[in-house]
Amino acid sequence: MPDASIFAPDEAQALATGLFPDDVEIGIAYPWEDASDLMPQEVACLPGAIDSRLCEFAAGRRAARAAMAQLGRPPAAILHQTDRSPKWPRGIAGSISHTDEICVAVLGLTDHVYSLGLDIEEDADLPAEIWSEVCTQTELAWLSVQPENIRGRLARLIFCAKECAYKLQYPLTGLLLDFSAFEITPDLQTGQFEATLTLDAAPFTARTRFAGRFAIGANMMMTGMALTPRMQPD
């Protein structure tokens, strides 16, 4: 078993905390731990799953239940929808993301947040051959004027922000949007970004802008978004 300390859970907690409102709680778990703490209903979600997939799934549920406890909610099974996205207990919004080393879940009560988005990526260059698949022409133009030695990491940041925005919108729209559906505008000075919809995705319309934040540390790149009542569409 790897030494958990080398993956800096305190740093992961600090990174995630800075991305979300104070009433969003954070849980952390590790995907190399065994899956023995899964609830029977959760095990039934993954019939025949290989051990590594089961452990990854269990880490997500373990992290989510840790956050749930901080919300004052009792432990509950977190099943998944037919599309494999988490089926949160009534009154809870959440998002889960993981790398090979760590799993983070963020949860909030729907009285305070309607939807949450979280994505974690390795802090490494995005391969140049897929930039055009991930980025719009406007984003590629922005990358072209950044210092050459950090363009790959900034392309990864755009990827991470789009994954985050996808997770934010999906519980509300039910749409499988591709990378071109969002245009990311990062602010490298403040650690903030905007994700602008390029098309209608009811209940949202094209050009709707969603605010997010990003942080980098402990070999991780993390993006977070929260849709609060004042941002909820009519």
Care to describe what's here?
The chain is 29% helix and 26% strand. With 234 residues, it is of the alpha+beta class. The protein has two domains: 25-111, Ribosomal Protein L22, Chain A (Alpha-Beta Complex); 122-213, no CATH class. It has a five-stranded antiparallel beta sheet with strand order 6-10-9-8-7. Strands 1-5-4 form a three-stranded antiparallel beta sheet. The protein has a two-stranded antiparallel sheet with strand order 2-3. β9 (209-217) and β10 (220-227) form a beta hairpin. The protein starts with 8 loop residues before the first helix and ends in a 7-residue tail after the last strand.
Task: Please outline the helices and strands.
Layout: H1 9-17, E1 25-29, H2 40-43, H3 51-70, E2 79-80, E3 86-87, E4 92-98, E5 103-109, E6 115-122, H4 131-134, H5 137-144, H6 151-173, E7 182-187, E8 192-197, E9 209-217, E10 220-227
Antiparallel strand pairs: 1-5, 2-3, 4-5, 6-10, 7-8, 8-9, 9-10
